[in-house]
Amino acid sequence: MKTITVAHSPDADDIFMYYAIRFGWVNLEGIKFDNIALDIETLNVEAFKNTYDVTAISFALYPKIREEYALLTTAVSFGEGYGPKVVKLKDKKLKRNFKVALSGEHTTNAMLFKIAYPEARIIYKNFLEIEDAVLNGEVDAGVLIHESILTFDDKLEVERELWDIWCELSGGDLPLPLGGMALRRSIPINRAIDYEDTLIKAVKVATTHAKPLSKMLLERDLIRVDAPTLEKYLSMYANADSVALNEIQYKAINRLFEIGYENGFYDTLIKAEDFLIPREYKELRNS
Questions:
Q1: pLDDT of residue 223
Q2: Taking Cα atoms as reference points, which of 282, 281, 233, 270 lies closest to residue 59?
Q3: Do residues 112 and 39 both lie within one domain?
Q4: Which DSSP category does 66 fall into?
Q5: Is pLDDT of 11 > 90?
Q6: Which pLDDT value is given to residue 233?
Q7: Residue 149 and residue 12 in contact, taking contact as beta carbons nearer than 8 Å
Q8: DSSP H stretches of helix in the chain
Q9: Same domain, 191 and 96
Q10: Which CATH number goes with the domain that contains 26?
């Protein structure tokens, strides 16, 4: 049996979308999917090294790894009127060069933040450490991601929503592309299509059986939040729109790539549709 490594972040939506495979609800004959959970910036860095067969990534990273990884069409997370939050202590006034903690150099939120706050002094921390860094005064502000946007301490307040920054930069009519999945190009195309199909099926099964799957995750202490928070969080980031990229989502990703290119983050401008697994290969092969 061949083993395929699937790396994802430890936040609730990634775990939720993968665990239909882990629990055996979805499988692929002859293939064992072996998952590993790491924070998103670690996954971004490992993608540069071509470490995992399938990996979660920040959408903002993708143009930098396009030669080694194909962009998958499933297990995607977008913000729709919400997203990461810039937080600070209540009533604190931020200077132009305020010190801020971000969850990683290659994250989508980091790119948007840098464009909006070019004079901020940035340090990088594991996303689980950012809230405490703001509370103890190590930094003036921090960008919260994942479940922290719902559970942060009441001593903190939102300085600015990354959603608002995105709307200003993008034109305001597109969802915010946050996280997606990518697959190593060295995998044969026919198998790559099979792996993507399996992942699509897993996300679809997860989102259509959200209640029993959520209960199993909570009972096994695989999630960091309580049941009501999990339900709310999954409604935001692991829903029917996570199963397969749609036209509006492609437009949003491409707008993100345009913004990054215009601001010097990428060496060339690409379109997401040009970097998917060429599914027509299977049709031609079977014709």
A1: 85
A2: 270
A3: no
A4: T
A5: no
A6: 87
A7: no
A8: 12-22, 40-48, 62-65, 108-116, 130-135, 148-151, 162-170, 189-208, 210-219, 227-237, 247-262, 280-286
A9: no
A10: 3.40.190.10
**pLDDT (tens digit per residue) in 35-83:** 999 999 999 999 999 999 999 999 999 999 999 999 999 999 999 999 9
User: Percent of the chain scored above 90 by pLDDT?
Assistant: 87
What is the pTM (predicted TM-score) of this model?
A: 0.94
Tell me the CA distances in angstroms from 37 to 15, 85, 146, 211, one per residue in order: 8, 23, 14, 22
- Tell whether 94 and 211 lie within a shared domain: no
Q: Is the pLDDT of residue 286 over 80?
A: no
Beta-bridge partners for 37? 8
Who's near 257: CB < 8 A, 6+ residues apart? Answer: 62, 63, 266, 269, 270, 271, 272
What does DSSP assign to residue 139? S
Residue 108 scores a pLDDT above 90 = yes
Q: For the chain, what's the residue count?
A: 287
Q: Give the list of residues 6+ apart from residue 284 with CB closer than 8 angstroms, or none.
A: none
Domain housing 212: 2-78+176-286
- Give residue for tokens 């801020």: 100
Domain count along the chain: 2
